[in-house]
């Protein structure tokens, strides 16, 4: 007799599936081993070409529908997001057998309270990468971290970091759509929710997987 694997409570529950999707995303903020800690972030460049990269998830607000990442203010993605632009985020959690796709708008916050809080809330070692002498993606003749030689392999002091705050920015994403795919031998489940501005709430429905 084949043992039946117990299905989670959210398998046939739309609201519970929505809550679980957010739970998995939120886990990426504090759990470095969570797949949501390093989701794939997609933007569109000036030529209309999709650009994907892995980024570290720094903060999530379910109420505000926002996710926060950190980036170099000199990077290509910063130029792509000077105005609120279309963006997407992909999380795949193999242990949870779940794929979560978030679509919405993103912008760069290089100045102001959000960026200042994000900068001061990061460790000195994490902020060291913003001490690079040239913008990310700049061609170089020899392999290099881009950091000044005097800080290679060292943790900077706060006073050493002060001049590099200008190279730091927060990438702020706000979700307008969330799609959930749960994989199960008993039957996959797929759903999508979109933010209804008029009703100020998420509206969801099941989809064929």
Structural account:
- This protein is 18% helix and 34% strand.
- By secondary structure, it is an alpha+beta fold.
Main traits of this protein?
single chain, 209 residues, 9 strands, nine-stranded antiparallel β-sheet, 5 helices, alpha+beta, 18% helix, Pnp Oxidase, Chain A
Quaternary: single chain
Q: What is the number of E strands?
A: 9
Outline, from the CA principal axes? elongated
Radius of gyration: 20 Å
* CATH homologous group name: Electron Transport, Fmn-binding Protein, Chain A
Percent of residues in helices comes to 10-25%
- H-E order: HEEEEHEEHHHEEE
Instruction: Please outline the major beta sheet.
Output: 9 strands, antiparallel
What gap, in angstroms, lies between the N and C termini?
A: 28 Å
CATH topology grouping = Pnp Oxidase, Chain A
What fraction of residues sit in β-strands? 25-35%
**What is the mean predicted local confidence, pLDDT?**
94
Number of helical segments with 4 or more residues = 5
Poorly predicted residue ranges: none
* CATH class category name: Mainly Beta
Could you say how many structural domains there are in total?
A: 1
CATH architecture: Roll
């Amino acid at each position: 007799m084949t043992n039946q694997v117990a299905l989670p409570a959210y398998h046939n529950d739309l609201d519970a599936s929505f809550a679980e999707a957010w739970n998995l995303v939120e886990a990426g903020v504090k759990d470095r081993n969570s797949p949501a800690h390093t989701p794939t972030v997609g933007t569109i460049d000036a030529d209309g070409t999709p650009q994907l990269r892995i980024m570290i998830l720094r903060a999530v607000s379910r109420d505000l529908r926002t996710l926060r990442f950190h980036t170099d203010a000199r990077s290509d993605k910063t130029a792509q997001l000077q105005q609120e632009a279309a963006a997407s985020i992909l999380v795949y959690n193999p242990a949870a057998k779940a794929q979560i796709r978030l679509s919405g708008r993103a912008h760069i916050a290089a100045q102001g309270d959000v960026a200042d809080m994000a900068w001061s809330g990061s460790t000195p070692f994490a902020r060291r990468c913003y001490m690079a002498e040239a913008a990310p993606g700049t061609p170089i003749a020899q392999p290099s971290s881009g950091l000044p030689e005097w800080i290679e392999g060292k943790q900077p002091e706060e006073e050493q970091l002060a001049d590099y705050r200008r190279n730091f920015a927060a990438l702020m994403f706000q979700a307008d759509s969330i799609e959930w795919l749960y994989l199960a031998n008993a039957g996959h489940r797929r759903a999508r929710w979109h933010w209804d501005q008029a009703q100020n709430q998420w509206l969801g429905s099941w989809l064929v997987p």
